[in-house]
Amino acid sequence: MGSTGFSNCDIGQRQRLGITEPISLSGPTEYDVAKTRELEKYLQDAGLYENQDEAICREEVLGRLDQIVKIWVKTICRAKGFNEQLVKEANAMIFTFGSYRLGVHGPGADIDVLCVGPRHATRKEDFFGELHKMLSEMPEVTELHPVPDAHVPVMGFKFNGVSLDLLYAQLSLWVIPEDLDLSQEAILQYTDEQTVRSLNGCRVTDQILHLVPNIQNFRTTLRCVKLWAKCRGVYSNVAGFLGGINWALLVGRICQLYPNALPNMLVSRFFRVYTQWRWPNPVMLCTIKEGSLGLQVWDPRRNPKDKYHLMPIITPAYPCMNSSYNVSLSTLRVMTEEFQRGDEICEVLFFTLKEKM
Ligand SMILES: Nc1ncnc2c1ncn2[C@@H]1O[C@H](COP(=O)(O)OP(=O)(O)OP(=O)(O)O)[C@@H](O)[C@H]1O
Ligand SMILES: [Mg+2]
Q1: Where in this chain does the entry annotate a coiled-coil region (predicted)?
Q2: What does the pLDDT look like over 67-80, one tens digit per residue?
Q3: If you measure from the C-alpha of residue 80 to the centroid of ligand 2, how many angstroms do you get, rounded to a whole number?
Q4: Are 176 and 243 members of one domain?
Q5: Which of 91, 270, 317, 332 places its Cα 20 to 30 Å from the Cα of 355?
Q6: Domain containing 87: what range?
Q7: ipTM higher than threshold 0.85
């Protein structure tokens, strides 16, 4: 686990992050430093951090998986009759995203992984066919479940006991360079919808990390908010509440609004801001860009279905989408009550401590 960003430089000196000016540029007091240490200890005691051995094991698994997709792409090139030079150049690689990439995963959590392959490595025959076959023959791989017809097609499995969700992006490139930059918009060109959706996870995660002023403070605050949401029963995308990505974006916005605050303060501001938030005003980390590829972006003035979103939380990478379309009137009411409850608890704590001082 990394340490808290106490050395936070003054954001006033740097480029502004977010679509508005910050609410406050105040930095931490000694009290905040002490309280944030206590908060970190609490999170650690709650078992939220994986140990060194587990972390190494995950890295080894990811290293192995990268080797496997590289072997896979060469195997299919040979089978398609490519000459040895093309086989030699053929490449595929993996990228992590989701909570693992954000650095807020707990012990035993799944790793979200994207496999990126060239134009001749197809999703149906090569990814869900040959790669699936290769994985199914490996003794390290268990519980292999391909879901090719999902909105975002995925292959779930365990590798040496580590749970992975593997997506596939079939790019229009003939050769995948090792230094491939997924953030460039051109990467989406001439790809299918499933590839755009699959790439989105990585592009969004990377953007979040770019758009928060202090990553370590963001991580600690997000871990705390995720723990709270799970305890209060409001952590679930499928049940109409919010999932990992939504909580990450909500916390990211608070970090932008209070760029110099430490996690103890950010948690209390989180409850304050979202208690007062006037939904359906969207929460966004950056402006929604139209892009040059003509893909549909979230726009309630133009897209009729976007008008009905009750709690829009917009993803920051092109094509920007609402990540919380499942929220209903009743789940929004429950979450609003929970934000209020959190806010009241923070307020009581603050005044009790002030009286003692
Ligand atoms: N509703 C959604 N809208 C946009 N992207 C999504 C959505 N659900 C998932 N994703 C993408 O897939 C990634 C993985 O999703 P997942 O639900 O595993 O969240 P997570 O951030 O990894 O949290 P958890 O700790 O619960 O696994 C997210 O980080 C996000 O990039
Ligand atoms: Mg995940």
Answers
A1: none
A2: 999 999 999 999 99
A3: 34
A4: no
A5: 270
A6: 52-203
A7: yes
